[in-house]
Amino acid sequence: MKRKLVIADDETNIRLGLRAMIERQYPERYEIAFAENGSEALSIIAAGGAHLLITDIRMPVMDGIELLEQLQHQPERPEVVILSGHDDFPYAQAAIRYQAKEYLLKPIVRSELFAVLERLEEELRQKDERASDAEGQRIVDKQTRLAQVLQRESIAESELRSLLLEADMGWLDGEYTVGILRPPAGTTEAPALFSRVEQWLGGQSDWARCSLREGEKIIAARDPALFSGMLEQLADHVQGRPCLALSSRATGMGQLRLAYSQARQASKYYLLYPDLESIEYDVVRNLNSRCPLPTEPIRKIANLIGMGRLPEIKRLLQQTLDIRFVSRCEIGYLMAISRLFNEEVFDRVFRTYGEESVEILRLYKKAGHIDNFDRFHDYYHHVEQLLERLDEYVARVRSVHAERKDMQRAVDYLHEHYREDVNMAVVSNYISLNYTYFSEAFKEFTGESFSVYLRKLRLNKAKELLAKTDLKVYEICELSGFESVKHFTRVFKESEGITPVEYRNRMLV
Predict the structure, then answer these.
(1) Which of 101, 125, 99 is nearest to 115 (CA)?
(2) How far is CA 292 from CA 53, 161, 337, 343, 383, in A?
(3) DSSP 8-state symbol, 374
(4) What pLDDT digit, counting tens, does each position of 446-479 carry?
(5) Which of 104, 124, 225, 422 reaches 20 to 30 Å from 502, CA-CA?
(6) Is there a contact between 35 and 44 (Cβ–Cβ < 8 Å)?
(7) Stretch (H or E) spanning 102
(8) Would you state the torsion angle of the CA atoms of residues 131, 137, 142, 148, taken in this order, to the nearest 10 degrees?
(9) What string of DSSP letters covers 154-197?
């Protein structure tokens, strides 16, 4: 079966070019549909679905960001790849929040496009396999029933009971605990771990399990000892320490979603306590929920970016993310710090310099979301690395701006002092730049060498005086900055093809 791929871009050449590249590389893989704007793409997807969407950000009628927002309401959403230019960075940044899988910079590089399509094809294949396995057991399988209940944000208790009782989970009317199990951070043994869990659970009673996120298992069990027994089994067969987060003891089917929410909240604390065997909601719920946010240090970091004061930035970062303090606070405190860094530092830099900083997008995509990390020190070092990159980048941009400002000062100086005995040494000294460097920078800024620019400036002033005044030629020569009438006449004739007097007579006709 071919994958359905929608290409949304208002430029015909880009749509056709993408299709040509894709069909040459994968002649039988995709059924490709075109859309000229987000509204057309949304209609195509709503009518017949799609596996993949490659969309531009800037389009008429409905742009790429609004399209991604509208897709959130679709029951089945395609995997999304965004196309962006350097000046689209703020939009690309917003697209990340709508779970775009990848972005590609224009002009499209074939190797990058093919690498993205290969990765998404593997993800879709795995998704198809999971869906196929679950489909045949949908009616009677406990996984499906439990997942249905936990995924529904609002569900009537009568419907909830019906779903659970049909799956033989009447024991949830008594007491139970919900746990979330993850493999050790960084392990490649997740399939082996979950297979071992399945084998061991098969010999137990009054339990149910499902998966709502890749890389974890949700387990509800009547007997809390089931969880400790499970960890003992895994200790002998898996390298590293699995992560198990546990809810409070719940009573009755109506508390199932609350218990799951508690386990989910407890699981977030592995970021701070990665070496614990299990984390219980009853323990972490008592952590300080009123820790004052480090607003001032973060604001100072934002102000120091690009100022050549990286050691001070790192000192403030260490103060802001001091694990000794952070670990005494509830996890919402760390999440709030992450949001502050995004809003006050990263987003602020991108708003100011965003059109030139797309290359940092991948790094920001990781550091901008704390859920991307299993350990606190990984988050810390990623933020530190991003701050280093931003500090270097902003300093470089400011240096360029400062250089342009210096060159403008040099040009302004020439316009004020062209009639004097001025030369490149005088002007470079005036703006405090090395003579040789000034020569190159001045030519890059004006498009002309210093001597040519000054000669043209003086000639233009002379021509203005010849046309608009009755001053003698020797007087105009002096007022224009030429060293002698002879030199003035020679330079003028080389430039204009006629003498100053002939130029004046022509202007009077």
Answers:
(1) 101
(2) 43, 43, 10, 17, 20
(3) S
(4) 889 999 999 999 999 999 999 999 899 999 999 9
(5) 422
(6) yes
(7) strand 102-105
(8) 50
(9) S--HHHHHHHHHHTT-GGGGSEEEEEEEEPPTT-S-HHHHHHHH
